[in-house]
Automatic annotation (TrEMBL):
Enzyme Commission number: 3.4.24.55
Family the UniProt entry places it in: Belongs to the peptidase M16 family.
GO molecular function: metal ion binding; metalloendopeptidase activity
Domain spans labelled Peptidase M16 middle/third: 366-643
Positions of the Peptidase M16 C-terminal domain: 182-360
UniProt keyword Zinc, yes or no: yes
Purpose: Endopeptidase that degrades small peptides of less than 7 kDa, such as glucagon and insulin.
CC cofactor: Zn(2+)
Residue span, Peptidase M16 N-terminal domain: 21-158
Name of this chain's protein: Protease 3
Residues in Coenzyme PQQ synthesis protein F-like C-terminal lobe domain copies: 746-845
Keyword flag Hydrolase: yes
Record GO biological process: proteolysis
């Protein structure tokens, strides 16, 4: 099996006696063990009269097996031992995965393996879980992604299994006379869950032999019913569905044009990747590109190429464009321009040097790929196991084995108007149909003869050119030699008025990559909601001005980001370090030569307004979270407040604002990774010159937080404009100490699975149910939340209060080994070594921001957690979380479906946000 020279893991591929394909991965440094099992069965296999069956089955396998009959046992066990688990149902695969501390892996696999040999399908659980599936379906009724996906299903060949409804609801999963859904569920499971259609990946610090023993012991008994999947006999698109214009009405303010070309399955060409080559050219954002021209004409904001659905007998190749209002009126011209570029590629773009350049980028990415979390690793490897030859499971995603010009020409020949479906998602179009399930208005009409003729002979556009050789491709493929001195933590190597520089050369991961963070704090940037809006507007304008020139750097494996935060803005560079100074120079030149052009200002302002208005239409839980954090953090206003200010901002305000912002600033910079100290110091001089740092007297901007204090229960109602009701309950710590963080973290850890099981699985209050850590400005916090299609806020609060009142007793009922195991699982998570350079850089950067100059906050929290007694946590639950004694903030929304229910009136209402925030400190 081919692997990266920088990959220390050992691999073994085998097939068990029952024909289950297995990949074993020995990773000596893995902090957790992980497993993923994928079944080559998905919603394509649903019976026509039981659509959603594969998805329903995925839910049911978590709800008890013969040896472990309690419905929440698996999740509780995994959580107790510091792990996590999930599953997803796709078109032709259903995949299950979990990770856990290594000593508990065998016991976890024993429980996991039973999913595929001895599930109970308990009748009571069947009835409750179809309610959960129905809640999941209803949760997405106003989700544009699902609404558009359903139109996609209705406008392809109705004989193709892609046309089926994939989620399921109470009507498709109902019991029928003499035919309970449970009987059909069991029959579906026995028919399809066959070992020869499955793939399994096990990863951990255990030896390959030990992992093989686990595979045989816990998965060798999965039955092989000898089922072979029949090939899909019908095409995704026929002539009846091709050459069609589809207009769809979204809920959110969207203007998106998508060109979808229908291709045969392309998976067999994964070694040469012809679509990657073409997407690389069509999606180019540099000078002379399709994106550059259409943007300069004021027609589009973004362009992406190469997406689209795929399956065992089809592949879509899509080009997606976000349109400006002007572009919405010129869609035919946009399509003509795209065909002009396709013609240019066919005439001049097929060159082996371009293929080699793309391959070099992928080879570098493969050679220096950074480790991912065990759970993420097994999740992508199990899909590769199902689709690639055994020797290519690790390498397949990065392979570009040979330049195949005849194949490229063959694919290009399919990118033609009569093989195109054009979809426009925008408000205000004419519609004559409504999609099933999600009630999406849409229309379909054939292309006109004039369109087909114009697009078939598009001509040549003189402004379109193919990309030049990439100047950002790295030539130094090995990291710098290590310096003699090894510092375990970053060092503050410059501490000047208004400027601090932290530095560390990376000694462990040994990749030629680096991370640079530059935090620019300015009190003026965050002194009012209007200034916060102007800061974000300037950030977007600068990012947009850099896009075209910096695009080759992104292609070559570097990334940059500029983002606003509660103190000002932060610039971040990442990826291969050799050419990062060149990229930084470009970004700073764009900054110093900043220009404010009316046309781009208007376009970006409109984009931001649209994005923020769309976010304000998100599902209720998301809206409540945004309102809650905005309420507590005055420098982080919620979307409605941002929208109100942005609507009246004029371009004339920006030059003076930027001058004032940069007249008083404080910079914290961190240079980390494959950098020498002299390079870091040189970079610091470039930054100081660019930002004119000369003995500033300004410190960092304040980041105020509203403290709840002895508030009792406060409530804040939000109108979310949604059928569902939702509630968030926030408990805030008064301290930032490691012990307080340990208490809040452990409380969340212990509550999470029980809360989910009680309120979602047992009481079926909704699909989105959970608890979470919510630290704000370094103060720990605990969040409990539910979004519900069946209950109003008062009922949800009563259910949560009943749970928190009783939870102290749950803690007292834990035996000593369960108590210690829960603590040790969480301590293991806290003590987990960083997976890769990027994760470590992020941790160091957060520590710098938190003034954790010794970079040992995690260790302090773990040490405090080790000494926490059960009595202390029970006392915390009774005194801080129990409703009668808690100081808490309830954010809630009474759904349109529950307007007739008794309103929530518990606690004191927050009637004035500004008055409430005056208590900030």
């Amino acid at each position: 099996m081919f692997k990266s020279p920088n990959d220390p893991k050992e691999y073994r591929y085998l097939t068990l006696d029952n024909q289950l394909r297995v990949l074993l991965v020995h990773d000596q440094a893995a902090p957790r063990s992980a497993a993923a099992l994928s079944v080559g069965i998905g919603h394509f296999d649903d019976p026509l009269d039981r659509q959603g069956m594969a998805h329903f089955l995925e839910h049911m396998l978590f709800l008890g097996t013969e040896k472990f009959p309690h419905p929440g046992e698996f999740q509780s066990f995994v959580n107790q031992y510091g792990g996590s688990n999930n599953a997803w149902t796709g078109t032709e695969n259903t995949t299950y995965f979990f990770e856990i501390v290594p000593p508990a892996f065998a016991a976890g696999l024993e429980r996991f393996g039973q999913f595929f040999t001895a599930p109970l399908f308990n009748a009571d659980s069947v009835d409750k879980e179809r309610q959960a599936v129905d809640s999941e379906y209803k949760l997405k009724l106003k989700d544009d992604v699902r609404r558009l996906y359903q139109v996609h299903k209705e406008t392809i060949n109705p004989e193709h299994p892609f046309a089926k409804f994939s989620v399921g609801d109470l009507s498709t999963l109902e019991d029928r006379p003499d035919l309970p859904v449970r009987d059909e569920l069991i029959a579906f499971y026995k028919q399809h869950y066959s070992a020869n259609l499955m793939g399994l990946v096990l990863l951990g610090p255990q030896s390959l032999d030990e992992l093989q023993t686990f595979a045989e012991q816990f998965f060798g008994a999965i039955p092989n019913v000898g089922k072979e999947k029949p090939a899909i006999a019908v095409p995704l698109v026929t002539d009846r569905e091709n050459a069609r214009f589809i207009a769809i009405e979204p809920i959110k303010e969207v203007r998106k044009l998508t060109l979808s070309f229908s291709l045969p399955a392309m998976e067999i060409h994964y070694r040469s990747k012809p679509l990657s080559y073409l997407a690389h050219l069509l999606g180019n954002e540099g000078t002379g590109s399709l994106m550059s021209l259409l943007k300069s004409e004021g027609l589009i904001n973004t362009l992406a190429a190469g997406g689209g659905i795929s399956g065992s007998n089809f592949r879509e190749f899509t080009i997606g464009l976000n349109l400006t209002p002007k572009g919405l009126e010129q869609t035919d011209h946009i399509v003509t321009t795209i065909f002009q570029y396709i013609h240019l590629i066919a005439e001049q773009g097929l060159a082996e040097w371009r293929y080699r350049e793309k391959r070099a980028v992928l080879e570098q990415a493969f050679r220096y790929q950074e480790k991912s979390r065990p759970l993420d690793t097994v999740s992508y490897l199990v899909m590769n196991l199902m689709h690639y030859a055994p020797e290519d499971i690790v390498y397949g995603d990065y392979m570009m084995s040979h330049y195949d010009e005849p194949l490229l020409k063959e694919v290009l020949a399919m990118l033609r108007p009569d093989n195109l479906r054009l979809t426009l998602v925008a408000k205000g179009q004419a519609h004559d149909r409504v999609a099933d399930w999600y009630h999406t208005p849409y229309s379909v009409k054939p292309f006109t003869e004039a369109q087909l003729q114009a697009w078939s002979a598009p001509g040549v556009h003189p402004a379109l050119t193919l990309p030049e050789p990439n100047p950002y491709l790295c030539e130094r493929l090995d990291p710098h030699p290590l310096t003699c001195q090894r510092d375990d933590i970053p060092q503050l190597i410059q501490d000047l008025p208004g400027f601090r520089l932290w530095y560390k050369q990376e000694h462990e991961f040994r990749v030629p990559k680096g991370q640079v963070y530059v935090a620019i704090d300015s009190p003026h940037a965050v002194s009012s909601v209007r200034n916060i809006v102007k800061t974000r507007l300037c950030v977007e304008m600068l990012m947009e001005s850099c896009n075209e020139a910096a695009y080759p750097a992104e292609v070559a494996g570097m990334a940059y980001n500029l983002y606003a935060h509660q103190g000002g803005v932060t610039l971040q560079l990442s990826g291969f370090s050799e050419k990062q100074p060149l990229l930084l120079k470009l970004l700073l030149e764009k900054f110093s030569g900043r220009t404010f052009k009316q046309e781009r200002f208007a376009s970006i302002k409109a984009q931001m307004l649209r994005n923020w208005r769309n976010a304000a239409e998100d599902k209720p839980i998301s809206q409540l979270f945004n309102q809650l954090t905005g309420l507590l953090q005055p420098n982080n206003p919620p979307y409605p407040a941002l929208i109100q200010e942005l609507e009246t901002v004029e371009i004339s305000e920006l030059p003076d604002f930027v001058d004032a912002m940069f007249a008083e600033l404080h910079i914290d910079a961190f240079v980390y990774g494959d950098w020498r100290k002299d390079e870091a110091l040189a970079l610091a001089e470039v930054l100081k010159d660019a930002f004119r740092v000369t003995d500033q007297l300004y410190g960092e901007a304040q980041r105020p937080l509203v403290h709840l204090g002895e508030s009792g229960t406060l409530r804040f109602e939000v109108d979310c404009g949604h059928a569902d009701s939702a509630i968030l309950i926030y408990h805030q710590s008064r301290e930032q100490s490691p012990r307080e963080i340990a208490i809040f973290t452990l409380a969340n850890h212990l509550m999470s699975t029980t809360f989910f099981h009680e309120l979602r699985t047992e009481q079926q209050l909704g699909y989105m149910v959970g608890t979470a850590n919510l630290p704000l400005n370094r103060y720990p916090g605990l969040l409990l939340y539910i979004q519900s299609p069946v209950a109003g806020p008062l009922q949800l609060l009563e259910a949560i209060d009943e749970f928190t009142n009783a939870f102290a007793l749950v803690l007292l009922e834990l035996n000593e080994s369960q108590w210690q195991a829960s603590k040790q699982g969480l301590i293991a998570q806290l003590s987990e070594p960083d997976t890769n350079l990027r994760a470590r850089a992020q941790r160091y950067w957060v520590s710098i921001g938190h003034k954790d100059d010794h970079f040992d906050q995690r260790q302090k929290i773990a040490a405090e957690m080790a000494t926490l007694s059960r009595a202390e946590l029970v006392r915390f639950m009774v005194e801080a979380i129990k409703p009668r004694t808690a100081n808490r903030l309830i954010a809630y929304a009474q759904g349109d479906a529950h307007r007739n229910l008794t309103p929530l009136e518990t606690g004191e209402p927050i009637t004035s946000v500004s008055l409430f925030q005056q208590t900030a400190c």
